[in-house]
Amino acid sequence: MTVSVVQFGGSNCDRDAVRALAHLGVDAERVWHEDGLPADTDGIVLPGGFSYGDYLRAGAMAARAPIMAEVREAADDGVPVIGVCNGAQIGSESGLTPGAFTTNASARFQCEPVFLRVERADTPWTAAYEAGDVIEVPIAHGEGRFEIGEDAHADLVADDRVLFRYCDADGNVTDAANPNGSTDNIAGVLGERDSVAVLMPHPERATLPDLGRSTDGAGILEAFA
Amino acid sequence: MTAYTATVTVRLKRGVLDPEAETTQQALERLGFELSDLRAADQFEVDLEAADADEAADRAAEMAERLLANPTIHDYDVAVADA
User: Fold this and answer.
1) What are the Cα distances from residue B67, in Å, to A94, B19, B37, B44, B47?
2) I want to staple B50 with a disulfide (CB 3.0 to 4.6 A). Which of A98, B34, B56, B76 is the partner?
């Protein structure tokens, strides 16, 4: 499996993603967005960062870069695609996944460890976990509040497309455990296929044993292993 | 073709929390102003050539649909004037 980590101007978690994947034994390389996806791409990471300086809305510009048409095509072919943080914003802006990520309720940039409850364990991203597991993964964002219209939210829940919810250490999904005011504590969602997912927390920052507080995020990236 | 300026105003849908507007309102209140509410919006002034005002408005609306607004959280309106 060769994973393409798509680098836009202003991406800054691309190297971290490659390093975390290499640690898991996954062949991954950074791909500059203007160069297009390599033909042997069989996994895609949209990494974190501040593509295009978050102009207009976080992810809005990168979502409309030509390479995203290739990403969408690959996703439709079943290639696993994950968007992390800015990559999640790009994924939702491009329509790969439902909803939108906008300004945190606190109006502040927040960089802190959070707990996530695994809502689905039958996806490539969560095969390492059991449903209901609590994992600790850091967030680092100013625009991570998940918003989705009422009807679309009802559909999202009915279709079981919520992948992770912010929770406390015991797995309780509470307002206090919601770092950014996200609707229904939603931290990550699936696209139309289970092989497409976005999440605001950074699994690549919770994969290497010598970095950060946990390696709980490794299970997510093991989807590519 | 005529030169027009299409003004696209993009605002959060009613009911969507706007922390920046809330913070701005609080700052105004700290300055002693009394106000009931404050809403913020982004405004884009697009200069373009079109056959008539309707075509200019249609093209500006498409720009809003495809980039300037995010339909999940935004409403928008378009006003066209001679440039």
Assistant:
1) 10, 22, 28, 12, 16
2) B56
Asked about A85 being catalytic, the answer comes back as yes
B→A contacts (Cβ < 8 Å), by residue, are 16-20, 22-23, 66-68, 70, 72-73
The answer to whether residue A202 is catalytic is yes
Determine the structural domain holding residue A188 and report its residue range: 2-224
Tokens of A75: 């996703």
Q: Which residues pair with B76 in a beta bridge?
A: B10
H or E element at residue A221: helix A218-221
Domain that holds residue B40: 2-82
Locus of tokens 């609707």: A183
User: Pick the catalytic residue: A33, A141, A153, A202?
Assistant: A202
Q: Which candidate, A74, A77, A51, places its Cα nearest to that of A63?
A: A51
Q: Model confidence over B27-74: pLDDT tens digits? A: 999 999 999 999 999 999 999 999 999 999 999 999 999 999 999 999
Q: Which two tokens stand for residue A180?
A: 């950014």
Q: What CATH number did the domain enclosing B21 receive? A: 3.30.1280.10
Strands (E), chain A: 2-7, 27-32, 41-46, 81-84, 100-102, 110-118, 134-141, 145-147, 162-167, 186-190, 196-199
Stated as kind and residue range, the H or E segment containing A36 is: none
Give me the residues paired with residue B2 across strands: B50
What is the number of structural domains in chain A? 1
C-beta separation of A223 from A82 below 8 A: yes
Q: Do B70 and A60 touch (CB under 8 A)?
A: yes
Total domains in the fold of chain B: 1
Per-residue pLDDT tens over the stretch A81-108: 999 999 999 999 999 999 999 999 999 9
* pLDDT tens-digit map of A25-41: 999 999 999 999 999 99
User: What burial letters (b/e) apply to A109-132, b meaning 16+ CB within 10 Å?
Assistant: ebeebbbbbbbbbebbbbebbeee
Interface touch A147/B18, C-beta < 8 Å: no
